[in-house]
Each structure stands twice: as structure tokens, then as C-alpha cells.
Amino acid sequence: MKEQLEKDQIIHLSGTDNTRDLGGLQTSDHRIVRSKKLIRSDHLNRLTEKDCRILSEQYRVMTIVDLRRDSESARQPDQVPSGAKLVHDPLVPELKQAQTFAKINSVGKLMLESVHHMDDDVLTYQSKRYAEAALSDFTAVAIQKWIEILLEAEDGAVLWHCTAGKDRTGVLAALILLILGVPMHAVKANYLMTNQWIHAKIQWILSKTREITNDLNLLRQVELLCSVHENYFEAVISTIDSHYGGLSAYIHQHLHISDEMIDTLRNMYLIPRR
């Protein structure tokens, strides 16, 4: 049953690798997340006409929230399905190295440059980055804007995405699922499911990197960079616990999401279990 749900959640598009419907997940009070309402994805730059029709006609995507930095959005602008509104809402500040990265055309070179930027220790760097983002005022404001979009989306679906659809997108997917009352273990499993769906893409990136280096440690670091890891998820949760004493206080005090807003979100995006 779990495997069937995972298959039902994936939205098969030619131009993306990790587009998923959060519908079908069950909450602790035995309600179900509505299908075709909350969609997470990687960037939409490569959408085909057929992909756009699927999103607009089958899923009725009315709002697309681009969580990428300005430099990323400019480099790979979204293809927007008919009838959808595009909202730019960067979740993290612009990188100082953005211009340097933008000049790199080789996938392998870009991966290695990114790994070196992380001191060749992706796991430690990314865990720290996740923890910092959880406490960032910049990120909190972006999340508040995204929550307002969800609250106002009475018709159709909201799709949010970053570049690979795994880190920024994955954190927001986890947040809304937790707000809706989906158990932590199921939320974590949904977050980690990314590795399953983008496995082929990761292998392709590794093959491009092997054209430059055979260093096993660097290749392992590139693989970590292209994946999600439970350490990242735990870094956010432990940071929230240590600074706010739990998720509820964090949501109310740091993100300024009220009980009334939570009730509205649950009424909008949950249905009774049949």
C-alpha cells in the first residue's frame, strides 16, 4: 500500500525529475491530504507543451512559487502552464559565488566547484546550512509569503519548486505536512523519497563528473550534494527543538502562523478518511 501511494504521488513529466503530489498522506487524526492541491517539483525550465497541459488540465495548477535565487531563475526561467500565475519567493539569500557559478557550463565542473565551496565536506556543510535556514529571518519571511499563497488558493493547485526540488522544496513540503498533522516519520519518509525518484539523474551527474575526476571521495561528495540525507532533516528538527522547545512554538513564534491559520489550512487541504 505504501509503495502504491508513492507511485500515485509522482507526476510523470518529460521535463522534470521530481514532481510529486502530496495528496494521499494520512494525518495523525486519520484525515487525508487532498490530491491535486499541493505539488512539489524541481525547476520548470524544461517543461514540454504536453507537460504544461498535464499541469494545467489534469492538476489545475493555478499558482507556481519559484523558491530559487534571482540568479537561478534568470539562468533557467520557468515555462509557465496556461492559466497559472508565477510568484518569485526566494527561500534563501543570493550566493556571493553566484556569478562565478553562472559562468560554469560543464555539469561536472559545476558540481566539483560546489563541493570545493563546501570544503569538500557536503554532509557537514549542508547540515549546518539547513540549521541556519531554519532560524533565518530572511527564510521566515519567504515562508510566510508562501503560507499566505496557500491560504488564498481556494481554486486549483499550488506548485512550489527550487532547482532540484529536494532541499528548499523538500523543507517546505515537510513543513506543510507537519502543519497539517502528518506524523513525523511519514514526513521524513516523503522527504527522503527524493533519492528514489532522482536516482537516474544523480547517476548521470556522476558520469559527467567522472569525465573530470576519478577521486572517490570527491565523487562521493558530489553524490551527497545531489541527494537528500536524513542528517539534513534531523538538523532542522534538532535546531527547532533546541531554540524553541518544539515545532508548535517555532511555527507560532518564528513563522508567525496562528492557530486560526493552521485550522484554515487543515480545512482547505484535508479530507476525512473514507
UniProtKB/TrEMBL annotation:
SUPFAM superfamilies: (Phosphotyrosine protein) phosphatases II (SSF52799). Gene3D superfamilies: Protein tyrosine phosphatase superfamily (3.90.190.10). It comes from the Bacteria. One of its GO terms (molecular function) is phosphoprotein phosphatase activity. Residues 144-178 form the Tyrosine specific protein phosphatases domain. Belongs to the protein-tyrosine phosphatase family. This is Tyrosine-protein phosphatase. It comes from Pseudoramibacter porci. The lineage of its organism: Bacteria, Bacillati, Bacillota, Clostridia, Eubacteriales.
